[in-house]
Design goal:
By secondary structure, the chain is of the alpha+beta class. The chain folds into 3 domains: 3-121 and 131-182, no CATH class; 221-314, Helix Hairpins (Orthogonal Bundle); 316-450, 2-Layer Sandwich (Heat Shock Protein 90), CATH 3.30.565. The protein has 11 helices and 12 strands. It has helices spanning 7-57, 62-69, 81-87, 134-147, 150-155, 178-219, 234-280, 285-312, 324-335, 355-371, 421-431; strands at 74-76, 89-91, 99-104, 107-112, 170-172, 320-323, 343-346, 350-353, 379-382, 386-392, 435-441, 444-450. Strands 1-5-4-3-2 form a 5-stranded antiparallel beta sheet, with helices on both faces. A 5-stranded mixed beta sheet has the order 7-9-10-12-11. Strands 6-8 form a two-stranded antiparallel sheet. A hairpin with a 3-residue loop joins strand 9 and strand 10. The chain is rod-shaped.
């Protein structure tokens, strides 16, 4: 199975996407809030300067002006602009920003940028007073003379506007907005929860991944596996139950192996004695029958021994490089068969195998091809990538994979064997990490070994 199909990989990708998406949304919200907060701050500063202007116009004291500034969380500063320019850190602002912002001793100070952004209320010529009728004018003049003098009128003129006073500085006494901190806290807590949840799910599914890997080993015939889990969830219970089943299989295998070894050991002695006694008999039909019976028993013991090695996974391979034609000659010699009855088409090919064991696999395929051939000679083709042996015959009655199981055969007779040939051959080929295949084409059975 590819890594992309792994459930742990898919869960990891899912959590990465979720974390990136949430972080992206929160950061976007912070950027939007920051821009909105800057606009709100500029409005506060602008309204603060307007309040100062009104206070100066009405000759209010500094304390009274500070009271008017309190709703905007600002106040008049005692620190001069020159000191701020020398010692304070100025925050970079754009040309469109109407104020200069300074940070001094962890406090924020604001100074307006005249005259580009704040227009003088008397900029340009003041409008001319409306023309009055003579009588009305005289009446207004008399009223003016009664209440004020010319000198008093000019003394009560509006003070110099704030935006022309480059020395004006206000202090921002508002704490940093909690909204930014709120979103950062939400982001931090969300990330921690997602990481913890991912860690929790990963640890819960990790035994399932280990169980899958151990099952793959088990499917390849390896019983030396351990799927124990300390957890108490359903996955851990499945892993522990599977481990118990493996322990029972190990015990059954030990019992079976002990039984086979005892049977083979107990049968070898009487078979050897029987063969010796048979050789002392006169040549007649009974002697041939006894001789075939003992040969058959000896053959069965050899098959059981091979089966025991394959099922136990104890087949030790001594691999070396050999010419394939030499391995084929060894297999033919083991069959005691006339090679002239085989149609051999061979290239000069070398493969790295265990000579004796791989010769057994080739011998079984030759034996099978010779026994079940219905017309002509078996055909052998040896190429750089494959070994193919073909024989004429009727199609198989069962799927090919069923013939790769032990004791699976179509005929019960001394000549046809126990149905272990293909099973043993398949085990040897797998141990050499080759591929065993079969095709039926144009009336020919084709058994293929791919190197």
């Amino acid at each position: 199975m590819s890594k992309k199909n792994s459930i742990l990989f898919q869960i990891s990708v899912f959590f990465i996407i979720v974390i990136i998406t949430i972080n992206g949304l929160v950061i976007t919200q912070l950027i939007i809030d920051n821009e909105a907060n800057e606009i709100i701050q500029m409005k506060r500063y602008f309204h603060s300067f307007e309040s100062i202007k009104d206070g100066e116009f009405n000759n209010l004291s500094k304390d009274e002006i500070n009271k008017k500034l309190k709703p905007f969380n600002t106040k008049l500063s005692n620190i001069s602009i020159n000191l701020l320019k020398e010692k304070a850190k100025q925050i970079n602002t754009t040309d469109d920003t109407p104020v200069n912002i300074f940070i001094y001793k962890e406090k924020k100070y604001i100074n307006p940028k005249p005259p580009k952004f704040f227009k003088h209320p008397f900029e340009g010529k003041p409008p001319k007073p409306p023309r009055l009728f003579y009588n009305e004018y005289e009446e207004k003049k008399k009223l003016f003379d009664l209440n004020t003098s010319k000198k008093q009128f000019f003394d009560n003129r509006p003070p110099k506007p704030f935006f022309e006073d480059k020395q004006l500085v206000i202090e921002d006494i508002q704490d940093e907005p909690l909204k930014k901190s709120f979103w950062l806290i939400i982001l931090f807590v969300t990330n921690i929860l997602l990481i913890w949840f991912y860690y929790f799910i990963y640890n819960k599914l990790l035994p399932l991944l280990n169980l899958k890997n151990e099952i793959v080993k088990f499917s390849q015939g390896d019983l030396d596996i351990d799927t124990k889990s300390k957890g108490k969830d359903e996955i851990s219970q499945v892993a522990n139950e599977f481990n118990n089943a493996i322990l029972q299989l190990k015990e059954l295998r030990k019992t079976k192996n002990l039984f086979l070894r005892n049977i083979m050991h107990e049968l070898k002695t009487p078979i050897t004695k029987g063969k010796l006694i048979t050789d002392t008999l006169e040549n007649n039909r009974k002697k041939d029958i006894l001789r075939k019976a003992f040969l058959r028993l000896e053959f069965l013991l050899e098959e059981f021994a091979k089966l025991d090695k394959i099922t136990n996974g104890k087949m030790q391979l001594n691999k070396k490089e050999y010419r394939f034609i030499d391995i084929l000659d060894q297999a033919i010699d083991m069959l005691i068969f006339d090679s002239t009855r085989l149609d051999i088409q061979s290239e000069d090919v070398k493969i790295c195998v265990d000579f004796e064991i791989f010769a057994i696999a080739i011998k079984n395929l030759l034996d099978n091809s010779i026994k079940y051939n219905t017309n002509g000679d078996p055909i052998i083709r040896i190429t750089k990538n494959s070994f193919i042996i073909s024989n004429k015959g009727k199609p198989l009655k069962k799927p090919f994979k069923e013939y790769l199981t032990p004791f699976n055969r179509e005929y019960e007779s001394i000549d046809k064997g126990l149905g272990l040939g293909l099973y043993i051959t398949n085990g040897i080929i797998k141990n050499h990490q080759f591929k065993f295949d079969y095709k039926y084409e144009e009336g020919f059975h084709n058994f293929i070994i791919l190197f």
